[in-house]
């Protein structure tokens, strides 16, 4: 496959435009003529004003169009636009630069907005969540500014939530620098709020950024610290406190599994199941959801990571209903299930599980890498079904043991 820099500017423009936008639509988005768009994609030299208009419409830096750096993997035009707007909001808000028309809603209105953002996030609608967080950041910062001195703690807490949401969205779509920046601002806001729970939640979020950046030692240290900082007394803990603690312990188990530390994993999973059993049901709080089903479904993925396929399949057999989970958590469980089945060489069952998950959640799936890994693992076991799954993922079926992109999406 050619490198991004090896392609012509016209080819790069076609790939950035993608199949979801026609040349006519791009012309309307930029204010350029259709003839100009066609000429640009045929390789005609672009003026700076034209480049700037194309850059803004496609949500891609000029350096990407010019081939000086590659775009982020599998990021569609809508994703790129949202990330650019979110990045501007994070950096401007942190610098105290707010839009001239930024309003300062009351705290109860901002808390309701926080819930809406988290609901979108846990439905796997990350682009929508990112688009909503962008104005939310400015509103939360405006509320901090408007609050009387000495009465700003709650407003700082909401702003910490907004920054944490921005970090989560950025981390999921691969905008790692933005994720680091947003989680850093979340940490500062949580400190100003003097809220120990929020500080621990932010630390857990930073641990997740570390994990995705392959900083596993740092991720485990922070994950363990976060869980310790909010460990409640079981006899007096509220469901909300148990939700936060169970989620933190489970994440610590995830990080330990990536490091192959089976003893630590066993300890954390034991705590996780104990918390879930104590709760007796799934509870949503502090931007997360936890309970006995969450503890069990996440243990499936953890055992898959450790190569303990038999344990993973035993847990899968014990899970009868996942409807109480957030939609994104349900989809992730299906990916873990498909991976366990592939590891057990249950090829057709794995492809069935994977295909159903891809059809049920195409928006969520396009931000995930596991579907391609599972399909590659299955290989040529069931050619017709594999072709269908490969089409859903956006790759060609394997040739000589490897995958190749059907539409060059892997370059994006």
Automatic annotation (TrEMBL):
Residues 20-65 form the HTH cro/C1-type domain. Pfam families: HTH_3. Signal peptide: none annotated. InterPro entries: Cro/C1-type_HTH (IPR001387), Lambda_DNA-bd_dom_sf (IPR010982). It comes from the Bacteria. One of its GO terms (molecular function) is DNA binding. This is XRE family transcriptional regulator. The lineage of its organism: Bacteria, Bacillati, Actinomycetota, Actinomycetes, Kitasatosporales.
